Structures are given as structure tokens and as C-alpha cells.
């Protein structure tokens, strides 16, 4: 993991020594890939095994997930967890409020309209291409730009500050940005965002796994 092998268009093979940071990123990406593949394999085996004993199409599912997180210092991990909770909140709103009211209306049942907080704008801020928080982060990695975390924060500010109701920055200069979630405002520290999201595997590591 301390070198990267690249084959050029003319068939030449280049061996490039990685810096300490690059080697660390390669190691982390390698570990995350193996973990993800093993997790998917185990879940697939458990599902296929349990399906052999369950003939009914009806089932009871249990979803276990971290609750909404606000830590003394919030980083990329907290953003991912809170993003998942935003998605779950939207599903709750849709099935409990929107679909139920549509069903009552279709059946001619008169009910009072229930007002609820729609978090779609917050979800768009986080995930909607091309300017969402996540797409902008992925773009810096896919284009292989040597963007620093601080430069990424500047991109976020330039794209969303005073343009999106769910985005803000702290009053004093810092390495943080604020997302206004349905559960409250959360300040995220930008340090480590690019490194934690960079899970691209070098082709020679993929060849090692295939061997």
C-alpha cells in the first residue's frame, strides 16, 4: 500500500511511491471496501437462510439506527447519521401525514388538515446534485483535485451562504458550517471531510483482491 502501479495508454507500467498521507488513505479505503463486502455478504447469507424457513410474504422488520446526533465536535460521521435521520423523518411524514390524508380524502372522510414541518429543503441541501453538500464533496474527489478541507468549506460558503435557508456559518471565523436540521441546528467541523469520504481503491489493490 506504499506504492501505486499504473498502466499507461501505451502499455508502460509506472510504479509511484505514495506519501504517508496517500498511503493512509489507501489503507483506509482498502479496509472500508473489505468491511463493506463482508457486511453485504453476511446480510445476504442471513436473508437467504431465513427465507428458506419463512414461506409467508408477510414479515415484521426492525430498523435499528443511531438517533439524531449533536456532539461537542460534529464531523463527517455525524453528518451521515443526521442525513439518515432526515431521510427517515421524511418517510415518517409521508406515510403518517401525506398518504393518510390522501386516503381520507379518497374515502370522503372529513378531517382537519394536519400541518407538519417538511424537511425536503434540508435534504436537498445535503444530497441534491450538483450543489448539495455531498455532491460537492464527491466532486472534489472524483476530479482528483488537491482540495483541502478549508477550501471545501469556502466552496460550501460560496454556494449556500445566504442562498439556502438551511445553511449558515458561525458568527466568528472558524472551520465550521451549520445545517438547520428538522431537529435543530448542528455545527459541523470541516476538518477531515475529504479524507473520510475518499474511499477510492487503487486498481492494483483491486487486482490483489481478485488474485
From TrEMBL:
Segments forming domain Myosin motor: 1-211
Superkingdom of origin organism: Eukaryota
The cross-references to Pfam families, in alphabetical order and at most eight, read: Myosin_head (PF00063)
SMART domains per the UniProt record, alphabetical: MYSc
Alphabetical keyword list: Actin-binding, ATP-binding, Motor protein, Myosin, Nucleotide-binding
| Amino-acid biosynthesis among keywords | no
Q: Which InterPro entries is this protein grouped with?
A: Myosin_head_motor_dom-like, P-loop_NTPase
Q: Which residues form a coiled coil?
A: none
Q: Does the keyword DNA-binding apply?
A: no
Gene Ontology terms describing biological process:
actin filament organization
Q: Which family does the similarity line name?
A: Belongs to the TRAFAC class myosin-kinesin ATPase superfamily. Myosin family.
Q: What is this protein called?
A: Myosin motor domain-containing protein
Amino acid at each position: 500500500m506504499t506504492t501505486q502501479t499504473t498502466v499507461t495508454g501505451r502499455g508502460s507500467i509506472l510504479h509511484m511511491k505514495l506519501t504517508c498521507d496517500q498511503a493512509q488513505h489507501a489503507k483506509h479505503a482498502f479496509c472500508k471496501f473489505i468491511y463493506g463486502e463482508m457486511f453485504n455478504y453476511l446480510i445476504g447469507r442471513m436473508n437467504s437462510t431465513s427465507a428458506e424457513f419463512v414461506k409467508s410474504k408477510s414479515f415484521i422488520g426492525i430498523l435499528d439506527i443511531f438517533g439524531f446526533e449533536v456532539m461537542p465536535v460534529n464531523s463527517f460521521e455525524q453528518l451521515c447519521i443526521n442525513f439518515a435521520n432526515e431521510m427517515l423523518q421524511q418517510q415518517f411524514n409521508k406515510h403518517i401525514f401525506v398518504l393518510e390524508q390522501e386516503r381520507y380524502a379518497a374515502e370522503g372522510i372529513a378531517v382537519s388538515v394536519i400541518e407538519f414541518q417538511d424537511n425536503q429543503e434540508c435534504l436537498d441541501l445535503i444530497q441534491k446534485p450538483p450543489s448539495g453538500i455531498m455532491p460537492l464533496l464527491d466532486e472534489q474527489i472524483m476530479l482528483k483535485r488537491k482540495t483541502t478541507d478549508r477550501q471545501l468549506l469556502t466552496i460550501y460558503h460560496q454556494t449556500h451562504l445566504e442562498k439556502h435557508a438551511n445553511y449558515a456559518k458561525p458568527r466568528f471565523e472558524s472551520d465550521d458550517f451549520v445545517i438547520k436540521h428538522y431537529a435543530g441546528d448542528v455545527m459541523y467541523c470541516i476538518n477531515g471531510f475529504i479524507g473520510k469520504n475518499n474511499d477510492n481503491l487503487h486498481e492494483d489493490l483491486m487486482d490483489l483482491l481478485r488474485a
